[in-house]
Amino acid sequence: MPETRKVLYVRLPCQKIYPVGVTCLASYIKKLRPDTGQRILDLAIVPAGRRRETLKETIETFAPDIVAFSWRDIQTIAPIFDRDERFPYIKKAFEFYYSPNPLRRIASSFSGLKVVKDYLSLIRENTGLIRLVTQRWPEKRVVLGGSAFSVFSEQIIKMVPEGVVGIVGEGENALLKMVDDAGLSTGTSDPLLEERTVWRDGDTIYGGTQAEPVDLDKLEIDPGYIREIFPQWEAYRNGSVGVQTKRGCYFNCSFCLYNYIEGRDVRFRDTAVVVREVERFHREWGVTEFWFADAQFIASPKAIAVCEDLLERLVALNLPITWGSYIRANHITPRLAQLMVASNMGDIEVSITSGSQKIVDHLTLGFKVEEIVQGCRYLKEAGYKGRIYLNFSLNAPGETKETLLQSIDAYKKIAAAIDGGIDATLDKAQVRPLLFFIGIQPHTEFEAELLKSGYLDKGYNPLSLNPRTIRKMMYNPAPLDRLLARTCLEAWDSGAENVGAEVFRLLEAKLK
Ligand code: B12
Ligand code: SF4
Predict the structure, then answer these.
(1) Of the candidates 379, 7, 176, which has an alpha carbon nearest to the alpha carbon of residue 167?
(2) Same domain (yes/no): 186, 316
(3) Which are the contacts of 511, defined by CB distance < 8 A and separation ≥ 6?
(4) Contact 164, 134 (CB under 8 A)
C-alpha cells in the first residue's frame, strides 16, 4: 500500500442538493485513515458544458488513486400531483393519456418527449463521465455508489465499463477496504466480497454480501474538515444541509425500498454527535436549514425516545434554525410534538397514504389511520404553525369509490382538527393534501406482488423508455384511472392553489 492514498469523490450531476453521502464517506476515511488525501467535486453545481473539463482538470491537479463516483438520483420524475412547479409530470401525463381535448394531448406529448430526452441525457452524461475516467486513466481505481446505484445496480453496472466496482447501500467499509488496497483480485477470499459490491466480467454480473454494517460510532462529520476538502462548500451555506441521525427502518411498507438500501435494523448515531454537527454547521458555515436525512425519522417504536433526546438537545442549544425529515405521524407523542415545535420543525409531510384501513393494511404500513389523525392533533395542541402535507397515494390496490370517500373523510377530520374545517380556508390551509400515485420501485414487495399478478412482465426493465412501461410504473390502474385523472385536471384548471383539496372536493361531489 502506498504511504498515502488519495480519493477523489465525484458527485455526479443531479438537481443541486447537499452531498450528504460523500461527506459521510470522507469523514469516516478521515477518522480511520487520517493520512488519506481527499477531495470532493460536486458536478451538480458545475454548469453542464463545463463538467467534463472540470473533472479532467481536477484529476490532473489532485492526482487521485481512487475515483469514487456518487450517483444520487435517476427517477427525477415524482409521481405527485401538485401545483409546485418542481412536479409538473403527473399533470402532463394525465393530459397526454386522459384529456378529452386532442390539442391538449398533442401539446403534452412534447413535454413527454422532453422528459424522456432529459432522462436519457442524464444517464448518458453520468455513464460518460465514468467512462472518461476509465479510458483516460486506466490505472486508477474507479468505484461507484450512491442511492441511484443502490436502487438500479443491476441495470447501471451493465452501462459502465468493466473494472468499475459498484457498491449497494452504505459505502464506508467498502471504500475503506479500497483505500487499504484490498479488492477484487484474489477470488473468493477477497475482503471486498464482504460488502455489497457489484461488478461485471463481460455480461456476467457478480456481487458480494455485506458481513458487518458500518459502525456509526466511528462517523462524525467535521464541517471544518469538509470545508478544506470541498472547495465548492459555500454553494451550500444558504440551503438545506442533510444530517443523518440513524440508518435503517424497522417498518416494512410494501412499496418502499429504503430498508433494502439501509437495512431493517435501525442503527442510531449518538444524538450528542448529531447535535454537535448541526451546531457546527450553523456556527461555521452559517447554515440555518437542516434535513435529518433518515429513511424515517421515527424509524421504529424505540426511536421515539431517541428522537426526544435529540430534540431536547436541539432545544437546549436554542439556535435560529429549522429542520425537517420524513415523519410517521402515528408515532408522534404529546412530548415529541412539544419538542418538534420547540425545536422549530418546518413544514412536514405526513404519509397517511389512504383513509381506508384496508388499503393501509394491504400495503403493510403498520399503523391505524386514527393514529395519524391523533398525531396531527398532538401537533396542533403543541402549537405547531407549519404546514402539514398529507400524502395520499390514490388508486392503490383495493381502491374503490368507497375507499376514496374514506380518504376524503380522513383529510376532513385532520383539516377540522388543525384548520377548523376546509371550506373557508382552502387557500390558506395549514393542512394540504398532496396527491401521489405509487411509483413502482425494484426490490419492493409491491413490485413482487405486481409481477405475480401479471401487471408487470417478468424480466421488465425498471429503467425502460418504453411508453407502456413508463405508464405502468406510475400505478394508476383501471377502472378508477380516468375518473381520478380527469378530476385532477379539472382541479388544476379551476386555478385553486390548494389543488389537492380541490381534487378531493370535486371527487366527493362526483362520488356521492
Ligand atoms: C432524505 C432524502 C431526500 C431529501 C433530501 C434532503 C436533504 N437536504 O438532504 C429530499 C426530500 C429533499 C429528497 C428529494 C429527492 N429525492 Co430523495 N431521498 C432521501 C433518502 C430518504 C435519504 C438520502 C440520504 O441523504 N441518505 C443519507 C446519506 C448518508 O446516504 P447516501 O447519500 O445514499 O450515501 C450513502 C450510500 O449511498 C453510499 N454512497 C454514496 N455515494 C457513494 C459513492 C461511493 C463511491 C461509494 C462506495 C458509496 C457511496 O455511501 C453513503 C454513506 O453510507 C433516500 C432514500 C434512502 N433511504 O436512501 C431518498 C432518495 C435518495 N431520493 C430519491 C429521489 C429520486 C429524490 C428526488 C429526485 C425525488 C423527486 N422525484 O423529486 C428528490 C430531489 C433530490 C435532489 N437532487 O434535489 C431516490 C434516488 C434514487 C432514485 N430512485 O432515483 C431515493 C433513493 C428514494 C427512492 N425512492 O428511490 N430526498
Ligand atoms: S416507514 Fe417510511 S422508510 Fe420505513 S418502510 Fe415505511 S415508507 Fe419506508
Answers:
(1) 176
(2) no
(3) 401, 404, 405
(4) yes
Question: What ligand 2 atom has the least distance to the C-alpha of 250?
Answer: 4
What the block records as the C-alpha cell of 62 is 489532485
CA quadruple 493, 499, 504, 508: dihedral positive or negative?
negative
Contact present, 15 and 76 (Cβ < 8 Å): yes
The finding on whether 374 has its CB within 6 A of some atom of ligand 1 is no
d(C-alpha 222, C-alpha 230), whole Å: 12
Note whether 180 and 278 are same-domain residues: no
In ligand 2, the atom with minimum distance to the C-alpha of 252 is 5
CB 178 within 8 A of CB 190: no
DSSP for residue 345: B
Q: How many Å lie between the centroid of ligand 1 and the Cα of residue 73?
A: 7
- How far is 15 from 122, CA to CA, in rounded Å? 11
Same domain, 398 and 448: yes
pTM metric for this prediction: 0.96
364-403 pLDDT per residue, tens: 999 999 999 999 999 999 999 999 999 999 999 999 999 9
Q: How far is the CA of 264 from the centre of ligand 2 (A)?
A: 10
> What span, in angstroms and rounded, lies between the C-alpha atoms of 123 and 22?
20
Distances, alpha carbon 232 to alpha carbons 126, 132, 354, 429, 461, in Å: 20, 22, 42, 39, 36
Residues 413 and 376 in one domain: yes
Question: Measured from the CB, is residue 293 less than 6 Å from ligand 1?
Answer: yes
- pLDDT, tens digit, 9 for 90 and up, residues 312-325: 999 999 999 999 99
d(CA 26, CA 41): 12
Please tell me if the CB atom of residue 66 comes closer than 6 angstroms to any atom of ligand 2. Answer: no
Identify whether residues 288 and 392 lie together within a single domain: yes
Q: What are residue 198's DSSP bridge partners?
A: 166, 207
**How far, CA to CA in Å, does 414 sit from each of 199, 329, 398, 433?**
49, 12, 23, 10
